[in-house]
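Format notes (please read before filing issues)

Several people have asked whether sequences and structure tokens are stored in separate files. They are not. Every record keeps both together, in the order shown below: the sequence lines, then the token lines. Line labels are part of the format and must not be stripped during preprocessing.
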Amino acid sequence: MAGAGGWDGPQRRAWLRHYYSQRQKRLMTLLIARRRRTSCYFYPRAWPSVRSTDWWERVVLKEFGPQDWLEKFRMSKETFFYVCNQLRPGLAPHSAHFHPTLPLEKRVAVALWHLATNVEYQTLSPLFGVGPSTVQTCVREVSYAVVLLLKPLYLRLPNEKELENMVRIFRTRWGFPHCIGALDSLHIPIHPPLRLSADYCNGQGWHSILTQATVDGLGQFWDVSTAFPGSMENSAVLESSSLWVLAKEGRLCPNPPKHFMGKAQKYVLLGDATYPLQDWILKPYQEDENLTQRQLQFNYRLKRAHSVIENAFLRLKARWQILLKCDDCSLELLPTLVLACCILHNVCEAHDNPFNEEWLEGTEPTELPKPCQPAPAAMEDSRAEQVRELMCQYFESCGEG
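Then the structure lines:
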């Protein structure tokens, strides 16, 4: 819509919320439609040299050791071929097609290498003996296939039994009871189209897309909403997300709710000051000299448990460094690419693939500070204060920890 970037105040925010809410709802429909109408064929350019052709078949497949697979593809060889087999229905060629195609495993390898290292298409293409456009096609088609075929297995709404297990893990691992997840946002640097520059300029003055995510106590994502413009506040993204709808429909807890401290209470998510206080979202008390010891203890417990998603974001960006700066990716592909990286993160974590701490170097550039706009008071739920008080009573009863 022309002029949207020039609106001020509530009118502009309302338009953004509506537009990107509708965009999220269309994502899976578009993915399914794309699978039906888009050919999965790749027409590789002439190999630049015999060495490039030989490199994949002879060196990677036959000589790569465990550390090589982990370093280049961020997963073990066994997990790599597991992923390939899972993606086969979405990437396998039709036998009637005349033109030759790249082997499925090679297409997946090209895509994972780019997602892991953020190496430019022109740099990566000679390594695999294909053209830059073929690398781009591999990244696009593999990302779509990951979302379509692996999302139902690795990034979905937990059932009631799984929610109970998540509560147990948060209580035993992080010392926070009745909790099913930690909620936060991730700003991903981009170069937006000039006409949308204002919409994608966040509160810290740099351009980004905004991803809202929720993780369990193990740091695995179970809800992700992405591709919102960086100018949106976390509270506005929350209202536009499927998570908000699920909570309002009562689908994030059993019906009736389980009892906590003698009262029926919904399961809670843990957020920070950028999210509104709800009876299902808890955030710290505002820091000042008037906080009681109980409130200080509550803040300590919540921030410690909330760190699970901060660590998950660090591991996500370190493992899939395309998320450090999406220069080669169009705005149309970004939602799928970000979602695919979150799913692949879960695959690696679920399969116990090692994480190299050296990948963390450079994942938090100091020149790009994270926007942190407090949630508006109008979104606060007065009933939620009773939930925080119950938590304070619980922590006081069980002592320091």
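For reference, the curators noted about this record: Strands lie at 179-189, 208-215, 221-229, 259-260, 263-264, 268-270, 281-282. Residues 9-37 form the longest helix (29 residues).
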